[in-house]
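Lab notebook, bench 4. Still working through the backlog of constructs that have no structural model yet. Next entry is a single chain of 181 residues. Request: give me the C-alpha cells for it.
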Amino acid sequence: MNNEKLKYFKEGLNRFAKAVIFGSLKELKRQKKGDSNLSKSLMYDDKVSKNSLSIDFIMNDYGLFQDKGVKGVGGVRKMTSTFNSRDNKGKMWKQKGKNSPFSFKKDKKPSVKHFKDWAIKRGLNPFAIRESVFRQGIAPSLFFTKPFEAAFKELPENLAEDFALDLENFIEFTTKDINKK
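Model written out:
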C-alpha cells in the first residue's frame, strides 16, 4: 500500500502535529512567552516519501534550550552586601537545569546581546543577568515536551483507527478491481 492510499493515516499524523504545536503555543502563552520569536517559529513539516510518512517539528534553535533547560557552570557567588560579606565562604549558585542534556562551558559565557532588551525593559543590568544565567543555567520549561507527550499518548489508538480506515478503503478498492476481471 503506497502513501496515496494512506490518506487517513497521514491526516492522523497531521492532527497529532497540530495538537503538539497548539499545545506548545498554549504553554508558551501560559509561561508569558507567547509573543516571542520562538512561538512564531513553531511549525511542522510532514514528509512523504515512497515508503514512509514522517513529521518534522521546526523551531528556533534556542527552543531546545528553553524546553530542556541548560545546566549552569555553578561556582561560588560573591557576596556584595556588607551584611553578607562577613561570610567569606560565599554562597553556591543555585542550579536550575541540573538534569539538562545541555550545559554552559566554563570559558564560554553567552553574549550580553541575548539579555540586553529583556534586562533593560526591567531596569536590570544585562551583564549581571548574563552572569546569573551562566552560573545558574536555565530551568527547563517543557513547553514542547509536555504537549508532545500528551498528544503521543493518544497517537497509537488514533493512528490505528486511521490506518484501519485506509486498509478498509484499500481492500474495497482492490476487491472492486478483482470483481471487474
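Notes after review: The helical segments are 7-30, 37-41, 62-68, 113-121, 126-136, 145-180. The first strand starts at residue 43 and ends at 49. Flag for follow-up if needed.
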